[in-house]
Amino acid sequence: MPPTAVEEQQMRQMLAALGILMFTSQSAFPAGEIGFIEDYVFAKDRAAALAQLIPGTEDYYYFHSLHYLSTEQYDKVQELQAPWTQRHGETARVWQIRTRLALLTYDKNQQATLDHIQRRLGLVFPHQKEDLSAEPNLPTKLDPAVVSREAFISRANAVTQDNLDGFEDSALDWLAGLELSPSHRRSLLSRLTRPDYPKLVKLVVDDLNHENSGGFGSFRIHQQLLVTQLEELAKLKPEL
Known about the structure:
Elements: H1 5-24, H2 36-42, H3 46-50, H4 58-70, H5 74-88, H6 92-104, H7 110-121, H8 144-147, H9 149-159, H10 172-175, H11 182-191, H12 200-208, H13 227-236
């Protein structure tokens, strides 16, 4: 099936990009290093010239591939790819031959050539026609099960069960009003920096009564208590 106008346009674009890439890429033969290439180019019998090369070297695979390409022996080019890459890896010469092969065999397998160029140059064609008639399918409100305070607490507790590291400081105000475990209560007291919490004295007393308490003065918030709070604390904990 002949290519469509769009496919022809894509092909021209990719070939143009490939031409720029090959033109600007580093030459396979550095300046001043001619050697065998001169013998190969001017040889009347290139098969005889190729016999000079040592089997297994990259020059051997490269120039044999060039010869097979120029004589349209494309199957032999493919046969050399596996041993070539096994010995020398994915070199620039390997990819040069692959690209030449893809271009020269375009009339035999157009899609394979286009796929090779697209992969080699990283070309993508993600553009799609916008469907203006489609009904919007976007949420209009937040899911309470995801943004509720209980959901936030559950996610924060998943971070750690022994402290309140999963909560930011902005959560301390309402955490101070909850019934907390001894470890969570101690973690809260260690982070409080202000005494203006209604249940602060009770939190301090409950912590002091716990077997693992560090005693009064072990937290900075103990030093921030107001006079009225200290008086209340003295009533609840006379032994202090």
